[in-house]
Amino acid sequence: MAEPEWRVEMILFSDSFRASVAGVVEELGGAALESRADTGAGRASADVLLILAGGSEADGLDFLAESGSAAPRFLIGAATDHRIAAAAIQSGARDYFALPDDLDLLRRCLERLARESAAKVEAGRFADAERRATGFEAILGTSAALRSTLDQGARIAPLRDLSVLIGGETGTGKELLARALHYGSPRAGSPFVEVNCAAIPANLLESELFGHERGAFTGAVAAKPGLFEIAHGGTLFLDEIGSLPLELQPKLLRALETRSIRRVGGQQPRQVDVRVVAASHVDLGQAVRRGEFREDLYYRLNVVQLVLPPLRDREGDVEVLARTFVERIASAYGLPVPDLGGDARAALRAHRWPGNVRELRNVLERAVVLSPPGTLRLGPLEELRAGRQPETGVLPFPAPLAEIVRTAAQSMLDLTGGNKSEAARRLGISRPRLQRLLDGNLEE
After folding, report:
1. Which band of pLDDT confidence, cut at 50, 70 and 90, is reported for residue 383?
2. Which of 118, 316, 425, 438 is at 20 to 30 A from 11, Cα to Cα?
């Protein structure tokens, strides 16, 4: 039988109530450990310390004053004296219980602590599973360019409060690296919260990040915590930080510097304990020089910068990724795993992969599902090797101008793996303008 994960140490100044307290602990699924007060009690592994001092309350208070345990401590006595309770709390106890009258109160208190302990254990298990699934070693690739970045990331991940800026072209895996930083840090058992700053309208982004109070604006029928509050204790990943509106940038800077936020429509600051990891596919240094990004915020985010190399600079990684993706895709669709032949490998190596890993996976998924089971037809891959775009990228002509423009916009969106911000950047237009073109609306 597995040993209980919740350990309660009973430090005995007397045997009064010893059996009843141990019974409560065992009812709640904990292990009741016993130590005599004169034997140097106080196990470092105990989750809770119960100082049983019925009839010896003064000695229990002395022990509390001298004990340096970080575990929650409670004094249990027999005297119903509020002065003892006040002295116990002043000496570092969470509470004082006078038995037998307070036995039910003690039970409820321990039940709450048991639930909290179980939640921490479960969070730790989840973090361990995520660390194995999304840690640095789970990021595929053996090239020196990639491993150099990952080695740097592994060195700084344990630094709990260090801000990190991740750079790299679209599709290089910036979110994967952010997750690896989180699950390799002391914050792994707390939330990892992500937000794409380019995907939320500017007028809603402030509320999304900082929350709002009831009645702060039309439609705010109830108070809502923001992502900073939701990420408390963990990591907030701000993807596409370069798209953050200029008017919001001072508020983000203040949140980073003061570790506090103020909800929209609120008056009181709220303390938050959050590590911020930001990412951008654009050069923020250039954006600063163009006046599109605040210099002070840039330096506050860019304490350490990790840059993911594009796939074309990761020698040998295309084949490693392709083999893994083909196996996963075939398994996900219940198909036999096809062989990655020499022609396919040559086509993959020859392509420049402007959409990087995201584009590679999309191409392989299309090839696997459209090929006869167990085979990998080279239709899309031959087009890549020949330097041609797939047939779906051919512009219709003759055709109405709106259809031609819409098809061109859609082709760019396909090329960027569905990333509208990147597609708009390559076309030299705004993201809303891109959406209008996709809708067939040519009007400004």
Report:
1. low
2. 118
Question: For the chain, which domains are there?
Answer: 7-118 (3.40.50.2300), 135-309 (3.40.50.300), 312-388 (1.10.8.60), 393-438 (1.10.10.60)
Token duo for residue 140: 């595929």
Helix axes 431-438, 401-415, angle to 10 degrees: 120
Residue 428 has pLDDT above 70, yes or no: yes
Phi and psi dihedrals of 415, rounded to 5? -65, -30
Look at the block and give the residue holding tokens 């699924």.
29
**Predicted TM-score (pTM) of this structure:** 0.66
Nearest CA among 39, 45, 47, 44 for reference residue 11: 39
52: tokens are 């049983």
| Whole-angstrom distance, CA of residue 193 vs CA of residue 350 | 37
Q: Within 10 Å of residue 443's Cβ, how many Cβ atoms?
A: 4
Whole-angstrom distance, CA of residue 315 vs CA of residue 145 = 8
Q: What is the dihedral of CA 119, 121, 127, 133, to 10 degrees?
A: -120
How many angstroms from the chain centroid is the CA of residue 31? 33
- For position 388, what pLDDT does the model report? 47
DSSP string for 267-326: -S-EE---EEEEEESS-HHHHHHTTSS-HHHHHHHTTEEEEPPPGGGSTTHHHHHHHHHH
Give the Cα separation of 346 and 408 in Å (integer). 29
